[in-house]
Design brief:
heterodimer; A: 667 residues; alpha+beta; 6-stranded antiparallel beta sheet; 19 helices; 61% helix; B: 190 residues; alpha/beta; Glutaredoxin; 2 domains; 6-stranded mixed beta sheet
């Protein structure tokens, strides 16, 4: 029943995509608005099909319908309800289903938002592109990633449940949907970029219209990445949160491209420059989400996160190829229309800083991509196998990240077009002193190491610059009577809060990498050891029985206070390896994390157990920074000061604004 | 101002965009070709100093039925030496593939398993549950694992009919990969 409903819905979804594409294509060809209007309505059909398919799958999961292969492989009667529901994204087929649902939500949102302009060929083309992308995913679900395949032979009475690592933490419930919402969200700007290239309407109009969509996609992706790191930290038990694993890189590379775009699009809006570049960034961001999906789902790369192997590789790779051919073909064809009217007057200007920012982000993305696929390239050329590890990524990305921190401090202070040294001195003095004093303070406090000290100093510099912008903007909005909250909304001000979030993450990342300690101690019940200044006492080890697993739990008292309870669990449905569950707590007022794992239980009753201890500073800041990014993105999406003139430097302090305005003049 | 300089830069820009697009396109097509021709990471063979040399000896009673076993007795068959443990999830996963390989057509293939950080009792239960009727050797002090250079299960070594190591696999193997390698070895006369 569930299989029948789901399968039918997927098939109808595909048919609706194809019908929508044909209708829109006919409408665009003949210019008949009623055809375009009819085409738009298929968006709802797509959404309805995906929603019914997801509902059928959820119903099958919740009612334990083991006649479906997906449920038989990923469901079990003993899994808690919340993780049964989230099993939708515990394996490949269900993930594709979720992906499709999110995509159709975006389709409906776009068609509804632009319903008044349904006769516009640009909107028609964009809708068509989104239908085409949806068609691919519906087809995927009828082909190699069919979520509604039935079990061959006898229907089992129970299943193994999702991978144990995916059913012991609530973050697993929200991290994948967030990440997908980000990944899939880039389809919207991609569709509009293609539409703009096809129609040849490369003015800035469509950019402004899709800016907020891009921003939301970017925000979801950022939060998804941070939540992924958090999940990895809380669940995997190695004490780290970022390993430059292909799966992580696959989400990070589009993020880097998207970040570059969010910055450089402002140059285009203000100055009309960098059009080819911006389009290329959008096309690249979307292509990279597809490439990332290929790299992580096809099994060409080994990954600690490879939860599913599958045969969708050739499909996704073909899709990537098609996107690349279309994108590059369009850019080559329309290159003539993309000629920028302006030029950069001075490298020491806001647009100069954005250009440098873009080069750095593009370089960053390239380095991460290269590191991810380099083993494949080398193997193709001379058949050798090698692995690219942490040292490559850390060594290559560190200087880029530090330069970006520096730029983050300076760029908001730079006016558009050209900067005078007087203005710079005025705007940068306080932030620069803050950075210097922080650096001196850190050294005096006894911190050592070039990279972390630079990160702290530059982080303080950049943070002070961002705070200064917010203060100036708030003061100005209070002065003109629009209320203090106006000072933190809008793109520029919300962006500064996002900057603060990124800075907090950069500082936390650097500190935890540089000043972390890890050790394994062998303890018998009652014994105490000292690790990095923390007293670790093994109080007791005892068994615990759960509905779906047996656990061995260690009670570990840290510093004579809180009891940590790391465990190793044996899931009944997964004979074999035990799954470790670390126990983490933030101590010392958010400054330091103590992370305790049960690395090895005692061989016999009363014997010694091996307790892993990781002590890292500032890890909690990473999650706080993620929250700041989300909050800042929301603020940035709220329309800012409407009456701002394009030539008015957003950062101008109240008392110099009139003079700046007259000096710059109108274009 | 625009009128004066409009036409020559326009033409130049068109070419620039076109040429860049073609260049990027060619690179990406090559890249896609590379990706398309990669085999799955699961099938990848690992490097080992043992490749092309005689496999280190293995002998002792099989923990399943106590019958004595000697690796040299497998000469004449393509033998997979599989290091596994009952607590290892990927090993369980690959066990059906090993069963398939052990019974592949031609009858000249065999599997020998060596316990890695595990004991006889659980191993017997494991084979009963997951299939496999081949000799299983205990390796109580890890000497065989050390001889072969095994770091963690599952790792496997494919030996040819003369007991020479043809390939090493880290992680799960598939019967298809093994059969392909055996076919290739036969063609090469190994």
């Amino acid at each position: 029943m569930n299989a029948l409903v789901g399968q039918t819905a997927v098939l109808l979804g595909l048919l609706a995509c194809l019908a929508g594409i044909l209708t829109l294509a006919a409408g665009l060809r003949t210019g008949q608005p009623q055809l375009l209007r009819a085409g738009r309505r298929y968006g709802w059909a797509l959404f309805a099909a995906a929603a019914v398919a997801v509902a059928a799958m959820e119903r099958a999961l919740v009612t334990h319908d083991f006649s479906l292969a997906y449920v038989a492989h990923n469901g079990s009667r003993s899994t808690p309800l919340i993780f049964t529901i989230s099993s939708l994204w515990a394996a490949l087929e269900g993930s594709i289903l979720l992906w499709t649902l999110i995509l159709t939500v975006y389709v409906v949102a776009v068609t509804s938002k632009f319903r008044s302009r349904v006769g516009d060929p640009l909107v028609g083309w964009a809708t068509l592109v989104m239908f085409a992308v949806s068609a691919f995913f519906f087809a995927l679900m009828l082909g190699p990633a069919n979520p509604f395949t039935r079990v061959a032979g006898v229907i089992p009475l129970d299943g193994p449940g999702p991978n144990p690592l995916l059913q012991n933490h609530p973050l697993m419930v929200i991290h994948p949907p967030m990440l997908y919402a980000g990944y899939v969200g880039f389809t919207v700007p991609f569709a509009f970029a293609v539409a703009a290239l096809v129609t040849g309407r490369l003015g800035e109009g469509w950019l402004v219209e899709t800016r907020r969509w891009t921003l939301f996609a970017w925000g979801f992706l950022s939060v998804g990445i941070v939540l992924g790191a958090w999940w990895s930290y809380e669940v995997l038990g190695w004490g780290g949160f970022w390993a430059w694993d292909p799966v992580e890189n696959a989400s990070f590379i589009p993020w880097l491209c998207g970040t570059a775009y969010i910055h450089s699009v402002m140059v285009q809006e203000r100055r009309g420059m960098l059009r080819v570049w911006n389009l290329s960034l959008l096309l690249a961001t979307f292509s990279l989400t597809v490439l990332g999906t290929f790299l992580t789902r096809s099994g060409v790369l080994q990954s600690v996160h490879a939860f599913s192997e599958s045969s969708i590789g050739p499909w996704i790779l073909s899709f990537f190829g098609a996107i690349v051919v279309v994108s590059i073909g369009l850019i080559g064809w329309r290159g003539d229309r993309l000629r920028s009217p302006g030029a950069i007057d001075s490298p020491i200007s806001r647009e100069g800083a954005f250009l440098l920012n873009n080069l750095l982000f593009a370089g960053f993305a390239f380095v991460v991509l290269l590191g991810t696929v380099f083993p494949l390239l080398v193997e193709a050329i001379n058949g050798q196998q090698l692995t690219i590890g942490r040292p490559f990524f850390d060594g290559m990305t560190q200087p880029i990240a530090l330069t970006l921190l520096f730029l983050m401090a300076v760029a908001p202070a730079l006016p558009w077009r050209t900067a005078s040294s007087e203005v710079l001195r005025h705007r940068l003095a306080v932030p620069a002193w803050t950075g210097c004093l922080t650096l001196v303070g850190c050294v005096a406090f006894g911190l050592r190491g070039i990279a972390p000290l630079l990160a702290f100093g530059l982080g303080a510099f950049a943070a002070a610059a961002a705070v200064r912008q917010l203060v100036v903007a708030t003061r100005r909005s209070m002065a003109d009577g629009s209320g203090p909250w106006r000072g933190i909304v809008g793109r520029a001000n919300g962006g500064m809060i996002v900057h603060l979030g990124v800075i907090v993450i950069a500082v936390a990342f650097s500190a935890s990498q540089a000043y972390g300690h890890r050790a394994e101690v062998q303890l018998q019940a009652g014994q105490t050891a000292t690790v990095a200044g923390h007293r670790i006492q093994l109080v007791d080890i005892h068994g615990q029985h759960h509905a779906n697993r047996d656990s061995m739990v260690a009670d570990v008292r840290v510093d004579g206070g809180r009891i940590y309870r790391p465990a190793i669990s044996q899931y009944f449905a997964m004979a074999g390896g035990g799954v470790g569950t670390p126990s983490v707590d933030t101590t010392a007022g958010g400054l330091s994390d103590v992370y305790v794992t049960l690395a090895a239980p005692p061989d016999q009753a009363g014997g010694p157990a091996v307790i892993g201890v990781v002590v890292q500073p500032l890890v909690a800041w990473l999650w706080f920074g993620g929250g700041l990014i989300a909050f800042g993105t929301l603020l940035a999406a709220i329309p800012g000061r409407r009456r701002r003139r394009p030539v008015l430097p957003a950062s101008a302090p109240a008392h110099v604004a009139p003079r700046d305005l007259s000096a710059v003049g109108s274009q | 101002m625009n009128a004066i300089v409009a036409s020559p830069p326009a033409r130049r820009n068109r070419r620039t965009a076109l040429y860049s697009a073609v260049a990027v396109g060619v690179i990406l097509v090559l890249f896609i070709a590379v990706l398309a021709t990669r085999s799955s990471a699961v099938d990848k063979q690992a490097r080992s100093p043992l490749l092309g040399r005689e496999a280190p000896s293995l002998s002792g009673p099989s923990v399943i039925d106590g019958r004595p076993f000697e690796l040299t007795s497998m000469r004449g068959r393509y033998t997979l030496v599989n290091f596994f443990a009952s607590w290892c999830v990927p090993c369980q996963h690959e066990q059906p593939q090993l069963v398939r390989f052990a019974h592949s057509q031609g009858g000249d293939t065999a599997v020998v398993a060596v316990l890695f950080s595990d004991t006889a009792g659980p191993a017997r239960d494991y084979l009963r549950a997951n299939g496999g009727d081949w000799p299983v050797l205990a390796d109580p002090n890890g000497q065989s694992a050390l001889d072969y250079g095994v770091r963690g299960p599952p790792e496997s070594y494919l030996l040819n009919r003369d007991g020479i190591v043809l390939a090493k696999f880290v992680g799960e193997v598939t019967a298809d990969t093994l059969e392909r390698l055996v076919a290739r070895a036969k063609v090469a006369g190994q």
